[in-house]
Amino acid sequence: MAGRLAPNHRLWRYEIDCNSAGAGFVVASSHYSLQDMGDLASPNLGFRQLVPQSLNNADQPLCVFQVTSFKCGGFAIGMSYNHMLLDGISAKVFEENLASQAFEGDKPLAVIPLHNRRQSSTTRHFPTPRVCEAP
Q1: How distant, in Å, are the alpha carbons of 16, 18, 126 from that of 4?
Q2: Helices (H), ranges, the chain
Q3: If I label 25, which of 48, 81, 109, 128 is the partner at 20 to 30 A Cα–Cα?
Q4: What SS3 class is residue 93?
Q5: Edge-to-edge, what's the strand order for the sheet holding 24-29?
Q6: Per 3-state DSSP, what percentage of the chain is helix, strand, and coil (rounded to 5)?
Q7: DSSP state, 50?
Q8: Once rounded to an integer, what is the mean pLDDT over residues 59-79?
Q9: How far apart are CA 93 and CA 117, in angstroms?
Q10: Are the CB atoms for 55 and 64 separated by under 8 Å?
């Protein structure tokens, strides 16, 4: 998560360069309390401010975290990823494991990550479209 995208001119594509340049980290504060935010389970356009959109940086990290503190003492952690780093399922597993480690004690990960997609039990097989000739 600490690398950067780098062009592979031979293959004409971007690849992850594991250069240890670091993930992005933003610290923010709010004059509101969590109660002022309303129903946290319902969509709210105001929640966009809790997630880092971009650092507007030529050296854009693949992963950016934002911690926003509220006047009540609560906080929110917003995360933004480049899709080349994590797909939706991988992001969900990462966030579940991060949350499982947030409390005291030596706990196992909530979900054991599977890094080999070929061994995934959730691999889906999509139908192959066929072109039919016009009658």
Answers
A1: 6, 7, 32
A2: 88-100
A3: 109
A4: helix
A5: 24-29, 63-69, 75-81
A6: 20, 20, 60
A7: G
A8: 92
A9: 14
A10: yes
- Distance in angstroms (rounded) separating the CA atoms of residues 19 and 3: 5
Kindly indicate the confidence band of residue 130, based on its pLDDT and cuts at 50, 70 and 90: low
**113/87 Cα distance (integer angstroms):** 13
- Kind of pairing between the strands at 75-81 and 4-8: unpaired
- Of the candidates 88, 110, 83, 86, which has an alpha carbon nearest to the alpha carbon of residue 98? 110
Report how far residue 39's alpha carbon sits from residue 45's, in angstroms, rounded to the nearest whole number: 12
Per-residue pLDDT, 109: 84
- Predicted confidence (pLDDT) per residue in 72-128, tens digit: 999 999 999 888 888 888 889 889 988 888 877 788 888 887 766 565 555 566 666
Question: What's the alpha-carbon Rg for the chain, to the nearest Å?
Answer: 20
For residues 113 and 86, what is the distance between their CA atoms, to the nearest angstrom?
Answer: 12
Helix (H, G, I), strand (E, B) or coil at 27: strand
